Amino acid sequence: MxxxxxxxxTLMLLLVLAxxxxxxxxxxxxxxFSLEKSNPMFSSILYDIRLPKTxxxxxxxxxxxxxxLLMQSLFRNPLAGPYVLGVSSGSSLFVAIATMMISSIQVxxxxxxxxxxxxxxxxxxxxxxxxxxxxxxxxNKNNVTVLLVGLMLGQILxxxxxxxxxxxxxxxxxxxVMWGMGSVGSSTMEDLYFIIPIYTxxxxxxxxFIKPLNAILLNEQYAQNLxxxxxxxxxxxxxxxxxxxxxxxxxxxxxxxxxISVPIASRLFFKTSHHLHQITFCLLLGASVVLLADVxxxxxxxxxxxxxxxxxxxxxxxVVIYLLFKSKLNVG
Length: 332
Prior knowledge:
Elements: H1 3-26, H2 40-75, H3 87-105, H4 111-139, H5 143-167, H6 170-180, H7 189-207, H8 210-216, H9 220-225, H10 230-252, H11 258-270, H12 275-299, H13 308-327
Helix pairs in contact: 1-2, 1-12, 2-7, 2-10, 2-11, 2-12, 3-4, 3-5, 3-10, 4-5, 4-10, 7-10, 11-12, 11-13, 12-13
């Protein structure tokens, strides 16, 4: 892709993102276009509810899409992603464990003690699963085997989470169920003060791996011949992915199919594998997809808000199926 085409495509994606941001801020059960700016309700809805939700949508979508891209490049597998490989399931299980612990010692009302512990456990869960998948991929180079191990591991972790939910009390069970449906509307501005610095550092760090990722797309031996420390690259990608997935899962719940469908769509639509292009496009596309899903969740019903996980799954699953048949991607 030429430099001019890259700039033009980026500007178009930014324009789409800007339109979706405006729609997400203004549309919903109460249409802000119908309110006067002098109305106290306007300020309350915009700054206390809609703005944190919109920023969370951007972070969740772009972060998960980036993690999907990094995993697909690391495993050289077009179907790798946080949800498919069980990384989100690992985060979810550890969040369930943390919630049970917090409930037992009654500190859930404290931000530092409550949400920080949940976030830490969520990151540890993502790191745990990603490490296992990486070890499997080193022992067995078959992409199908790696995918199946990830899927089975995700099922095992989901079963363990279900066991914890079964043993929990009614209040915790409701919390688990609602959290598992996914939501970008539960974050506050105080939460974002915690999320944004972590997210920003992880995103900036990913741009430093553009050249190594371009090299490893061919094969590891070629990358090593170019001076790439493959082991350090693996550890860095695992760490970045675990942090991003862990933080997003802790605050938004598991959000399906963004991590797998966006990198595939970006690669096929824009016909480039250069990671400068792909990282940029995935960040913008991922944010746009979750914003679109949130807009759909808001406008389908004025009485209640649909779980965002439902919408992303309904959007993402057909997209993945279509792209698989259209491109005939090789996952073996």
